[in-house]
Design goal:
It is elongated, with a radius of gyration of 19 Å. The chain has a six-stranded parallel β-sheet, with helices on both faces. It has helices at residues 16-35, 39-57, 66-77, 83-98, 105-114, 127-137, 149-152, 159-169, 183-192, 220-226, and strands at 4-7, 118-123, 145-148, 176-180, 196-200, 213-214. Helix 2 (39-57) packs across helix 3 (66-77). The N and C termini lie close together (8 Å). It has ten helices and six strands, in the order E-H-H-H-H-H-E-H-E-H-H-E-H-E-E-H.
C-alpha cells in the first residue's frame, strides 16, 4: 500500500524545458548586447562549459550552478567576471517568472493529502532554488519533506538520493511511490532503490513501454485508489 508519494520537480511539477527556453533567450540577448557574444557562439561555449564542469566536478548539485558556469565562460573569453552574477540572476528570475505548474498539480496534491498521504519532493539541483520553485508554483504548502542532490550529495539515479527520501518518509521503500518524467533517473533509479515508480509522460504517449505511466498528474489519485501502480 502506498503511503508516501514523492515527486520529481523539473519537467514534472512544471515544464522546465518551456521555462528554460524563455530564460535562455533572455541570456542570449544579454550576452550579445552587453558582451558582444553572438548567440551561436554563446550556445557553443555554454555546451562546452557544461561538459567541462561535469568532468571537473563530477555528479553533484554544483553542476547546476549557473553562476559558476557563466563565470567560467567569461574567464575563458577574458570578459569582466562581474557579469556572471547579473547573468545568473537574469536567467533564474526569468525562468521563475515563466514557470507554470503542470496541469492539475495543486489539485492532485490536495486530493492526495486529503487521503492522508505524505508528500515529498526528490530532485537534482541545489535546495534553495528548488524551494523557491515550489513556492512560486504554489505547491510548497503540500510538501512534507524535500531531498535535493545537494543534501544527498548525489544525483539521480544514485541510490543515496532515494534512500534519503525513504528515510525521511518514515516508511518502507515499497510504500513509497516516486513520480517523475525521466525514465532512467526517476523511474529506474527509484525502482533500483526498492521504491515503486510512475513515469510522468505528458508528451509522446504513443511510445511503447512496460513501465506504468500517467499522461496527466490528475490521473494519479485515481490510480492509487484502484491500486493500479507497480504493486
Amino acid at each position: 500500500m502506498i503511503k508516501v508519494v514523492i515527486f520529481d520537480i523539473d519537467n514534472t511539477l512544471y515544464s522546465f524545458d518551456a521555462a528554460h527556453q524563455v530564460a535562455f533567450a533572455a541570456l542570449l540577448d544579454y550576452a550579445q548586447r552587453e558582451l558582444g557574444i553572438a548567440p551561436d557562439e554563446f550556445r557553443r561555449l555554454h555546451k562546452e562549459m557544461n561538459q567541462e564542469l561535469k568532468g571537473r566536478m563530477g555528479s553533484c548539485a554544483a553542476i547546476h550552478n549557473r553562476l559558476i558556469r557563466y563565470q567560467n565562460i567569461l574567464e575563458r573569453l577574458g570578459k569582466p567576471v562581474g557579469h556572471a552574477l547579473r547573468m545568473s540572476d537574469l536567467y533564474w528570475n526569468t525562468l521563475l517568472d515563466a514557470m507554470q505548474p503542470s496541469p492539475g498539480a495543486a489539485e492532485t496534491m490536495q486530493r492526495l493529502k486529503a487521503r492522508g498521504l505524505k508528500l515529498g519532493a526528490g530532485t537534482d539541483m541545489t535546495a534553495r532554488m528548488q524551494f523557491v520553485k515550489l513556492e512560486r508554483l504554489g505547491l510548497l504548502p503540500y510538501i512534507d519533506f524535500l531531498v535535493s542532490s545537494e543534501e544527498a550529495q548525489a544525483e539521480k539515479p544514485a541510490p543515496a538520493l532515494f534512500d534519503l527520501c525513504v528515510e525521511k518518509a518514515g516508511v518502507r521503500p515499497a510504500e513509497c511511490l516516486f513520480v517523475g518524467d525521466n525514465l532512467e533517473k526517476d523511474v529506474h533509479g527509484a525502482q533500483a532503490a526498492g521504491l515503486q515508480a510512475l513515469w510522468y509522460r505528458p508528451q509522446d504517449v504513443s511510445k511503447g513501454t512496460a513501465e506504468p505511466f500517467v499522461t496527466a498528474l490528475s490521473q494519479l489519485p485515481g490510480l492509487l485508489a484502484k491500486g493500479q501502480t507497480a504493486d
